[in-house]
């Protein structure tokens, strides 16, 4: 079956809309990854189940923004106004939030008033931040801590207590209770140099909840996502060329004989979707950015 693949052009258009013109007009893997990180950092607008840690629940009256943010996450509203200027505005900066890259933990400002349509305020220096582990369909509000608590292992301990599946245990890596886990400050230095270190909690050793980062600071989960997209596209090309599509898709394609098969790509609720442009057939949808 003959087809026209316009997914690269469509992906370029999505990236240009967010990051501006491509350097030398060339779409590279690095640019794709930078864009994926930016989109994921913004927290895609999707309804989520929200779990509130006791440490956070105790501060709801002190910081009314906690309830506002919880409600926004539950209905899939835009939560970017609570994100920092650095996270929102440094769009092509891969290192805009290394805690997010490494641990998949986002931080939110707890101001109450909309200074502008896209910014919550006030944000006085030193005001505590809300730290949360946000996934595609759920969010765990973990703790309220001062600005700069980017490698505080206490936050991981709370995640382990609330959602053990999100903090995979590493067995046989370090002797239990060895005391070999780095300090928070040592973790900060390792992270800034592109390393992800396991952490020891209650005598057990755990991997980073977000699968860690590469030596170039890419979140491992984003590298997996980019590889998955390339692999699925290659398989789709083969299936089209060899007429090996599922029968129900072949029936939809045959229903409009004479129209070329045009592969397109779009972003829907944080998910990359590859579809047929002339017939509106969805070929596959990747998991949402997180």
Could you characterize what this model shows?
35% of the residues lie in helices and 20% in strands. The protein is an alpha+beta fold and 290 residues long. It folds into 2 domains: 1-41 and 214-290, no CATH class; 43-211, no CATH class. It has a 4-stranded mixed β-sheet with strand order 1-10-11-12. A 4-stranded mixed β-sheet has the order 2-7-6-3, sandwiched between helices. The radius of gyration is 21 Å and the shape is globular. The relative contact order is 0.15.
Please mark out the parts with pLDDT under 50 across 5 or more consecutive residues, or reply none: none
Q: Count the beta strands.
A: 12
**SSE-based structural type:** alpha+beta
Q: Main beta sheet, described?
A: 4 strands, mixed
Number of discrete helical segments: 10
User: How many domain modules?
Assistant: 2
**What percentage of the residues does DSSP assign to strands (E)?**
15-25%
Over the alpha carbons, how many angstroms does the gyration radius reach? 21 Å
Provide the helix percentage: 25-40%
Task: Please give a quick description of this structure.
The chain is an alpha+beta fold. The chain has helices at residues 7-19, 29-41, 54-57, 65-75, 85-89, 98-103, 153-162, 184-192, 220-241, 247-254; strands at 3-5, 49-52, 105-109, 113-116, 119-121, 129-134, 138-145, 199-201, 204-206, 261-268, 271-276, 281-285. The protein folds into two domains: 1-41 and 214-290, no CATH class; 43-211, no CATH class.
């Amino acid at each position: 079956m003959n087809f026209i693949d316009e997914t690269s052009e469509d992906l370029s258009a999505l990236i240009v809309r967010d990051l501006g013109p491509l350097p030398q007009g060339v779409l590279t893997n690095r640019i794709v990854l930078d864009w994926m990180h930016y989109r994921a950092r913004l927290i895609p607008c999707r309804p989520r189940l929200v779990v509130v840690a006791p440490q956070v629940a105790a501060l709801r009256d002190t910081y009314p923004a906690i309830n506002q943010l919880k409600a926004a996450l539950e209905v899939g509203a835009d939560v970017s106004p609570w994100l920092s200027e650095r996270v929102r505005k440094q769009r092509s900066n891969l290192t805009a939030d290394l805690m997010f890259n490494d641990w998949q933990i986002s931080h939110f400002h707890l101001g109450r008033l909309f200074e502008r349509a896209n910014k919550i305020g006030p944000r006085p220096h030193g005001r505590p931040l809300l730290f949360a582990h946000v996934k595609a369909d759920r969010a765990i509000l973990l703790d309220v801590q001062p600005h700069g608590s980017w490698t505080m292992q206490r936050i991981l301990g709370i995640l382990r207590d609330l959602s053990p599946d999100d903090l995979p245990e590493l067995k046989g890596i370090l002797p239990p209770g060895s005391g070999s886990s780095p300090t928070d400050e040592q973790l900060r230095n390792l992270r800034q140099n592109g390393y992800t270190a396991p952490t020891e909690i209650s005598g057990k050793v755990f991997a980073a909840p977000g699968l860690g980062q590469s030596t170039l600071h890419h979140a491992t989960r984003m590298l997996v996502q980019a590889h998955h997209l390339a692999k699925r596209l290659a398989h789709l090309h083969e299936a089209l060329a060899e007429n090996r599509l599922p029968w129900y898709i072949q029936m939809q394609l045959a229903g409009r004989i004479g129209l070329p098969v045009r592969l397109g790509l779009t972003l829907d609720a944080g998910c990359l979707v590859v579809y047929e442009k002339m017939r509106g057939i969805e070929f596959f949808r990747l998991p949402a950015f997180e």
